[in-house]
Write a structure and sequence with these properties.
- Helices cover 52% and strands 0% of the residues.
- It has 3 helices and no strands.
- The longest helix is centred in the C-terminal third of the chain and has 11 residues.
């Protein structure tokens, strides 16, 4: 496997960007649209950091 983890590649936008948007009371849908990420990626990131 050459040291790579199987599965989907990680998103190029770091979790910092997602976390930065949430305190601004932005809806998950708006974060998804602005950062061009999937809803699941945004939700997962917010759950991990809560």
């Amino acid at each position: 496997m050459n040291g790579k983890r199987p599965g989907w590649p990680e998103s190029k936008i770091g979790t910092d960007k997602v976390i930065e948007y949430r305190p601004q009371n932005k809806l998950i849908r708006r974060i998804v649209n602005e950062l061009n990420l999937s809803k699941g990626s945004v939700q997962r990131t917010l759950e991990m950091c809560s």
